[in-house]
Amino acid sequence: xxxxxxxxxxxxxxxxxxxxxxxxxxxxxxxxxxxx
Length: 36
Fold this sequence. Notes:
By secondary structure, the protein is mainly α. It is about 95% helix and about 0% strand.
């Protein structure tokens, strides 16, 4: 049980980090479109 939980936690954190990167990139793209 503990092993499976430990393996799931890092995966979730990595997904969250990827989401943040994608969101930041999308926000920058939207900002560029608004400026243009």
